[in-house]
Specification:
The protein is 59% helix and 7% strand. With 684 residues, the chain is an alpha/beta fold. It has a domain of 235 residues: Rossmann fold (3-Layer(aba) Sandwich), CATH 3.40.50.300. Strand 7, helix 5 and strand 8 form a beta-alpha-beta unit. Helix 11 runs parallel beside helix 12. The protein starts with a strand and ends in a 5-residue tail after the last helix.
Length: 684
């Protein structure tokens, strides 16, 4: 086996290159800190076969291109490898971004430990050509490791756009290693790069004498001085570095202290409006109203009736499996369009600016802009969002970020928003964006509350590299859309399908295992009735709402599919303004139910990720209790105050709601005072 490690600074294009040469679809963001653990995959056959035919092999130092040209001292060798070498498996490892081998963050430690401890056969050092001096500091450290090194000089398109020119031949000669110019986004130069890496695998190299010695502050300063001289020798700048660029001028507006946050809100509103009212909404309407509501059920029912299938089995397949899963899959086009637009926004470089804008607000609650990165990742799924908190070096800040990240509505929660929006607020474009506005408010207030309940003071600093604005890649956006759609379909065909089957059985049978005519006598109704009294202060009674909430903790999409089963409603009936849901909720209670499902603890898989990252069962219990209390209290306030304001009377459960609210306030005041007493000198 040949093991190739990809190493480089954050946001240098490592994961984009990794996906291109392995065929994987790992998450890529145009900001640093996205890759938080090493990922491994086999090299794609087309790259391995290209390497083994003898094409593109470079030795010595020089720059190489796929079209066969060779510069500097490099050469292309036409020899063929033996049969034994052809059977070699080539394994590629994508390491987290690192600025130095002296780790400052946990992901830098992962990269350092792998490079120094695992001894890969060859290193591919991805250099951001648009930030050459910063990248070369890490390169000089890698050259000292006596591991074969090939440099991938990435983002050459950005260099040319700035009017700069890099003398690649001279740089290769000075560093005494091969350099391949690549553009990872388009795939340019990648075949030559992998060929050079495979050829160099296993060779022993001698560290350049200029790099001898490292570790102390003085030596790091010497290294910086050398890198600066090296950059000046090979980089010809096309314009004055102090001149304002287009990105600088745009940042003065979108990252403005006052206007930055409203601009972000308007952009997100536009994205959701386009997703819901555009192609995504139209396609979802077709799937819900026609495909899963009429065409597929009618065809399956007709087929089963012709072959004489038992009515119970027919009901299980049509009403349980197809009805439940179809109610979720009907929202797939909407989700695909939404994540396509979000991927375009990320790839443009804007999301790094959002972290800068939010840093000003997060500092007030003891966090920093680093906490924004897990939350942005969490818009797709809370699990990678929670894992992305590893980029935060301060332990307490990381714990608080893990607790708050699930408040960001993920892709699994979008079908719930879409269902209740279509039934109770048809044609209203404010519902989707309002969930994210509420999430932001909860994160700010939740952070303040946690800061006052648990004694901690953040010590982290927030430094982020702002990438150049660029035209987003359609290929990248389509790849991210496919990734989300694939995950959604797999989840619907596994966890949700199994859960829907279980829900159908629990609603069809009683505890004595007899088929029930009245669903209120079923096993599901009994379980739901036990939980239902707890939801009365929130304004929604009935075992159906309780049952849907319970299954939602398995996977949030189950809320929609459970309603489709327990209400015996087809997709078009469930989504219409005459939906059976109107018998369970008023518009105010429906909004509260939406809030309750979005801002209580996430699904079990995300809770598992919290358990792995938060550092102990005690903190996990605190996190779940806090999330449950926040979601419950907010839903309760919306129901009680909204009913009083809009309908002029008290909602059901007003008295127990008042008692619960006063109790929560009392406990909160007690915990805050306890924390303050412990913070005083000599306090215990």
């Amino acid at each position: 086996m040949i093991k190739i490690a990809l190493a480089g600074n954050p946001n240098s294009g490592k994961t984009t290159l990794f996906n291109a040469i392995t065929g994987k679809t790992e998450y890529v963001g145009n900001w640093p800190g996205v890759t938080v653990e090493k990922k491994e995959a086999n090299l794609k056959r087309e790259f391995k076969s290209y390497s083994l035919t003898g094409e593109g092999h470079g030795h010595g130092h020089g720059s190489q291109h796929d079209h066969g040209s060779q510069h500097g001292h490099g050469h292309v060798h036409g020899h063929h490898h033996g049969a034994g070498e052809r059977k070699h498996q080539v394994r590629v490892v994508d390491l987290p971004g690192a600025y130095s081998l002296a780790p400052y963050t946990s992901e830098e430690a992962i990269a350092r430990d792998f490079v120094t401890g695992e001894s890969p056969d060859v290193l591919i050092n991805i250099i951001d050509a648009s930030s050459l001096e910063r990248s070369l500091f890490f390169t000089t450290q890698l050259l000292e490791l006596n591991i074969p090194l090939v440099i991938a000089l990435n983002k050459q398109d950005l260099v040319k756009r700035k009017g700069n020119v890099i003398d690649t031949e001279r740089l290769a000669a000075l560093l005494q290693c091969s350099i391949v110019e690549v553009v990872a986004n388009t795939g340019e130069g990648l075949k030559t790069l992998t060929a050079a890496a495979i050829t160099s695998a296993g060779r022993k190299t001698q560290p350049a004498p200029e790099f001898a010695g490292r570790g102390s502050l003085t030596e790091d300063l010497d290294r910086q001085s050398y890198v600066r001289q090296l950059t000046d020798a090979v980089l010809k700048r096309g314009r004055n570095a102090n001149e304002l660029t287009v990105s600088d001028r745009v940042d003065r507006i979108v990252a403005h202290t006052v206007f930055g946050l409203p601009i972000f809100g308007l952009i997100m509103w536009a994205i959701y409006a386009l997703s819901i009212n555009g192609l995504g909404g139209w396609a979802s309407g077709y799937l819900n109203d026609v495909l899963f509501a009429k065409i597929i059920p009618n065809a399956v029912n007709g087929f089963f009736e012709r072959i004489g299938v038992h009515p119970l089995l027919q009901s299980l397949i049509v009403d349980g499996a197809i009805g439940g899963v179809g109610a979720v899959l009907g929202f797939l086009p909407l989700i695909m369009v939404l994540f396509f637009l979000l991927a375009l926004l990320e790839d443009s470089g804007y999301m790094a600016r959002v972290a800068v804008v939010m840093d000003r607000y997060f500092k007030r609650i003891g966090l920093s802009g680093k906490s924004m990165i897990p939350m942005i990742v969490g818009t797709g799924c809370s699990i990678p969002g929670i894992m992305a908190s590893r980029t935060i070096e301060d332990e307490n800040e990381r714990k608080v970020t893990i607790i708050l990240t699930p408040f960001v509505p993920c892709g699994a929660k979008l079908p719930i928003i879409a269902l209740f929006s279509a039934v109770f607020f048809p044609g209203q474009t404010w519902v989707f964006p309002s969930m994210y506005v509420i999430a932001g408010a909860l994160i700010i207030m939740g952070g303040l509350l946690l800061k006052n309940i648990f004694p901690f003071q953040s010590s982290s600093t927030f430094i982020i590299e702002l990438p150049e604005y660029r035209l987003p890649s359609l290929k990248h956006a389509l790849s991210q859309m496919y990734r989300q759609a694939k995950a959604f379909i797999i989840k619907a065909s596994t966890i949700i399908l199994v859960m829907n089957t279980l829900v159908w059985f629990m609603q069809t049978y009683s505890w004595s295992l007899h088929v029930v005519e009245d669903p209120s006598a079923s096993v599901l109704a009994t379980i739901g009735s036990i939980i239902a009294p707890l939801l009365i202060p929130l304004g929604f009674a009935g075992w159906q709402a309780a049952a849907a909430t319970l299954t939602g903790f398995i996977a949030k999409e189950n809320v929609v599919s459970t309603f489709a089963i327990v209400l015996s409603a087809s997709d078009d009936a469930l989504m219409s303004t005459a939906s059976p849901l109107v018998n369970l909720f008023t518009p105010v209670a429906a909004f509260a139910y939406l809030i309750f499902n979005l801002f209580t603890p996430p699904c079990f898989a995300a809770i598992g990720a919290m358990n792995a990252e938060i550092g102990g069962r005690k903190w996990l219990a605190r996190a779940i209790f806090f999330q449950l209390t926040v979601g419950y209290t907010l839903a309760m306030l919306i129901t009680q105050l909204g009913t009083l304001i809009l309908y002029g009377h008290l909602a059901a459960g007003a008295i127990p709601a008042a008692v619960i609210f006063i109790s929560i306030i009392a406990v909160g005041i007690y915990l805050i005072r306890k924390n303050r007493n412990q913070s005083l000198p000599g306090g215990q």
